[in-house]
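ok trying this again, last paste got cut off
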Amino acid sequence: MRLNGIRLAHRKNTEDCETVLLDRPKKVVLSMWQHIGAPAVPRVKVGDEVKVGTLVGDADTHMTVPVHSSVSGKVTAIGELLLPNGKTCATVEIEPDGKMELDPGLSPPVMTDKKSLAAGVRASGCCGMGGAGFPTHVKLDYFEEKAHIDTLIVNAAECEPYITSDYRELIENTDRVIGGMKLIRECLKIERVCIGIEENKPKAIKLFRERLRNEKGFEVMKLRSSYPQGAEKVIAYSATGRVVEEGHLTAEYGMIVLNASTVGFISDYADTGIPFVSRRVTIDGDAVGKPCNLRAPIGTPISELLEAADTDLESVRRLIAGGPMMGISIYDTSLPLLKTNNAILAFKEEEKIYEPSNCIRCGRCIAACPLGLMPRELERAYDRADRDELNRLKINLCMNCGSCSYVCPARRSLAEKNQLAKGLALSRK
């Protein structure tokens, strides 16, 4: 069996751009909702002095990820933010003092087993850095009665065009990524660790094979360069041949999948105790004068990131957080950098709107779907509000990769309707 997918122009313009530190933002706005799950609640008030790593938001729910100050300074406002997905959340706005002093209470955590690893990772504020933002501690805190984890898969596919933030983590922080792999393996008693890297990154593949050649139980897998190779269920199949059925998690099939930058961060946190307060982000697009990789504090206004990359802000007509396939459009450059933002893409041309034509039954959408769905039939079921048919066609398996819309010669809005169809399938009649 070979998974479907599509070929995209890689456009990895910044793969050789060493990360530049941008650590003096004019202000930071910390969103309390930067992950999948329940939002955090502000734990500070206006006028409070904070340091780098001070806890500023949390909630007593399993699917919440705490938020920490990314700068030292004073809390100037507790506000509300309209997110690009249309939802709103609370924010903590901080005026930096320029000192970037660490919170004196920070210290390296003790993580020696599954329980302490999950607790430590939660305390760090870590969520998946590949874009989805799933709380990492939830993946690590699996029910041992239901799952025996035998494989850790480190996702270094980075299959979307333009984005090179994970690649730079592999090249610049090789020891950190390997250290994270070893720590997680030891704490969870995992037999096999596999890092999957797409074949369009030969330098990273060679580097990790050299560094891990004498490490028993570690494997570097060269993955076919196709999209969406980096999707969790896709890379899980590529690494193990196991098919994760609808409604199930990879842990139920003996696997944990973690993004490469996430693994690198866990290693760094174990050594320093500094929580998730900054991240690497790729800045690219035809409106960007100097495409680059920047490391910036969480909450930095996107306008400052674009300015650091010599972006002609007046010419920007389309702004995307993430990649061009699964990223989300940004309506305002004043929006803050989030933990899940691995790229900011700025383009001079507005997105082209095409008038769809009738389906010609070419079957390209089915051939492109990595999970073997039938997008045109899903569209037909959605148009007639047939919830039973949507569920029969397994609409909830759709990962919103956009491959179906990308290959459709009739320009039909297949991927968009799939997302609407998910809500319809779950709603009451």
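PB: full thing came through this time. The chain has 13 helices and 17 strands.
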